[in-house]
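Let us practice reading a record.
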Amino acid sequence: MKSTERRSSCPINYSVEIFGDKWMLLILRDIMFNGKNSFLEFRASAEKISSAVLTEKLNLLLEEGIVSKVTSPKNASKFLYLITDKGIELVPIMVEFLAWGSRHNPDGGPKPLLDRIKQSKKQAIAELQEKLRSERRLYELD
């Protein structure tokens, strides 16, 4: 893994240097909540990330061990980006962002997931984390 020079050793600074822009959170949203895992799927998101920015952000997620990159079993020229355990640890944070945004955004969010979060946030988080682990296991070649 490539070593990135940090501005400081502060844990908040570390987090901001990785997640401190909208694109990282939107890529994680697409992986966690929308089931996307390929470059073209990320590019098709409503926010219209450029190919260059997407490449840069995916490379940072790879360097940090938040996603892994595997060859698609259906198409050897296509890569899939799968969330790692380190990335799955971010699910509770992303659920909080989703819940907060849905409370303050008049357009809401994904209603079935929001309903599950309202019923039991802890259970919704556990289910989502297990779903992500199961999806990753489908592609593991070990």
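A brief commentary: The first strand starts at residue 67 and ends at 71.
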